[in-house]
């Protein structure tokens, strides 16, 4: 999974990204443009441009971390159970093929932990 436990960035990753954004604010304050900031921070021009616009409108505070977008709904033990269930494959959960989709994973989570409304399988 891209993010830690599938539920967003870790605190250390959020801090690192915030440091990059705040470094961008310093560079913008010194008169550097989007392309130069993107090159120095090793990002593409698009996020550098978004950061520049946010900084220009609201200052450095616009680039500060806002914390996690949400807290995980599953405990570490539940994540471990889910991982084991997913490793058994879709066939173990009633699907004929061997491909996981987001909808199928959501269905398995709902069945195991009763946290999502079911909109069908």
Provide the descriptors you would attach to this structure in a database record.
121 residues, mainly alpha, 5 helices, 54% helix, disordered N terminus
- Uncertain spans, ≥5 residues at pLDDT below 50? 1-6
Largest sheet: none
The Cα radius of gyration reads: 20 Å
Count the helices. How many?
A: 5
Q: What distance separates the N and C termini?
A: 22 Å
- The computed structural class is mainly alpha
Number of domains: 2
Q: N-to-C SSE series?
A: HHHHH
Percent helix range: 40-55%
Number of strands: 0
Output mean pLDDT: 85
Morphology: elongated
- Which band does the percent of strand residues land in? under 5%
**Assembly of the depicted chains:** single chain
Can you offer a commentary on this structure?
The protein is mainly α. The chain is 54% helix and 0% strand. It folds into two domains: 4-63, no CATH class; 76-113, no CATH class. It has helices at 11-29, 34-41, 45-58, 76-87, 102-113. Helix 1 (11-29) runs antiparallel to helix 2 (34-41), helix 1 (11-29) crosses helix 3 (45-58) and helix 4 crosses helix 5. It is elongated, with a radius of gyration of 20 Å. The relative contact order is 0.11.
Secondary structure elements and pairings:
Elements: H1 11-29, H2 34-41, H3 45-58, H4 76-87, H5 102-113
Helix pairs in contact: 1-2, 1-3, 2-3, 4-5
């Amino acid at each position: 999974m891209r993010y830690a436990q599938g539920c967003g960035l870790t605190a250390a990753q959020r801090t690192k990204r915030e440091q990059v954004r705040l470094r961008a604010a310093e560079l913008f304050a010194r008169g550097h443009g989007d392309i130069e900031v993107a090159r120095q921070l090793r990002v593409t021009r698009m996020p550098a441009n978004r950061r520049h616009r946010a900084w220009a409108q609201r200052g450095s505070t616009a680039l500060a971390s806002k914390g996690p977008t949400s807290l995980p709904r599953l405990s570490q033990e539940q994540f471990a159970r889910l991982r084991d269930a997913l490793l058994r494959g879709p066939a173990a959960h009633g699907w004929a093929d061997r491909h996981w989709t987001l909808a199928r994973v959501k269905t398995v989570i709902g069945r195991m932990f009763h946290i999502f409304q079911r909109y069908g399988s």
